[in-house]
Amino acid sequence: MKKCYIEIGICGLSCRLCPAYHRETKSKCEGCKSEYRMGAACPFHTCAIKKKRIDFCGVCEENNTCAKWRKFRDTGKQHDSLLSYQRLEDNIAFIRKSGMEEFEKQQLAREKLLRAILKEFNEGRSKTFYCIAAAVLEIVELESVLENARAKSKELDIKERSEVMHSLLNEVASNRKYLLKLRR
To answer: How far is C-alpha 148 from the geometric centre of its chain's CA atoms?
Structure first.
């Protein structure tokens, strides 16, 4: 099977918004369907890709009755792992309605904004926070925050720029009732 959409997890999460995907070390993850990750013990890889030869659990004929996927989705409503699962159900619904290609376009836009935020505002300690924000906020909100942060931090050093970005992201999160931390 030719794996498509390497950076979209079989479960519907976007690898492009994961801190491990943005590492600058040998331990950088290239995505859930990359050769490296395919060697890991994952029940979704085994079932979806190896047995059923599908890219996304949401298109499986057993998706409504699959206990593994249901447990994962139920857990994702309250807990996160390395990345935020807060939009998992929204992602699944979007993929089912609009398809993987449209979801990929959306995730590329989010990733582009995240990369700009990381490049311009990461003081070395905010990658996970920015990844969560990129996953949780709407794209137009991210664009607005980035534009405002750039305008407010032109002459500031990296630490001060990071503080401006944190403040703006937290303001949007507070107003919209978003959670910008991992739920453990």
So the answer is: 23
